[in-house]
Amino acid sequence: MLNSQVNDYYRNYFGAYFADYLKDKEKQDTKLNYIMIFFIICVLLASLGISRPIFAKTDTERIKVVNTGQEIYLQKNFEENIKNKYSGSHITFPYTGVAHIKQIKYINSKPIKINIVELNTKVNPYLKIKPQTASDKLNSKRTIRRIAQREQSLIAINGGFFKPASGVPLGALMIDGKVLTGPIYNRVGIAIYEDNDNISFKMDNINFDIKAYTENNTLIIDNINQPRMLQSYTLLYTSDWGEYSPPPPKNGYNMLIRESEIIKISANPIKMENNDLVIQGSKDKISNFGKEKQVKIEINLQENLQGATHIIGAGPYLVKDSQVYVDYKEQKLQAISGKNPRSAIGFNNNGSFFIVTIDGREKASVGMTLYELAKLMKNIGCEYAMNFDGGSSSAMYIKGRIVNNAVNSEGIPVSNALIVNEINPDELHISSI
Questions:
Q1: Which of 91, 124, 84 is nearest to 351 (CA)?
Q2: What is the phi/psi pair of residue 359, to 5°?
């Protein structure tokens, strides 16, 4: 209890109520209990707020909910593993779950400059990987930087082969479930599967089964939106090809189909509107098939790759079942077997995806053969890997710039690319406490 002088002091300066409160021990104990209860409630609320997800802005300026503690833990482990794995290399981490590694290796005392992107979709499940064309029409080209900027991509690399004069992709290409082009020589491709926030991959030789049906006839189609390789082929062209279909083969016809109905048959190129189809083949096949008016067309992917969201083909294989496997002769790619600039991709079943470029044709970096590239892809952890278009096409884009030594600092305009975006769901996914 306070003496009378102290009591008078507090009464004069703080009022009678506070002075009486200090003089009354029972009242002090009651107030102290209230304060302690209030303090404990505040601590509990603060703990609850920290353990719950918080809002985080991303580069796309959408809002997502993340479990910050878990994300930080995964990212720290990811960074530590990358630093140990690529010890001695120049390493940066431009995005969550993404590492960029720059190396210089020597083969037979010759230098080789290497750029590697290793990303992990388990560390960052919002990373999405897909092929992308240069524009809405197949017969067009753009630099990797322009493709990436148009799609607001984090990362991009040149994709499959293409016809230099027109830009039409030479090989299988399917984007968001829509088949744009068919395979050539049964070459290898990567199939990308999207299941909500999960992404997975398969690699195999690509084959599409394409047939056209009328009530009484079936027509087997050899390919879709590809240049003619044999006079005997029957080909399907869609409005994605361009404004006009190609001219038919000698003594052949084009048949225009609009909304499942045969509109006309012509020995000349045909102008196509959106969603039009043109079947092109020999005079006998087209004439016989065109006797009926209603046509149904089916395009089916081989059974072991069904369900894929995207497919991009190139070749050859580099790694298969964790072993070096370079089948360039089977895929008719002998012309690219020497030391060249290279682009490649690969993956493993731990959620890691690899994007690689090799500089070449210069004193500071002589390039790699396909076998040397295959060994590199295996050594960095690929269970499956494949070669992309290389040479002057090779270009890697990260965070707004080309990071490898590409031709003209930009790489040449190309037909298609593989891009990496960070996509946030429109609805917030709230993680548990």
A1: 124
A2: -75, 150
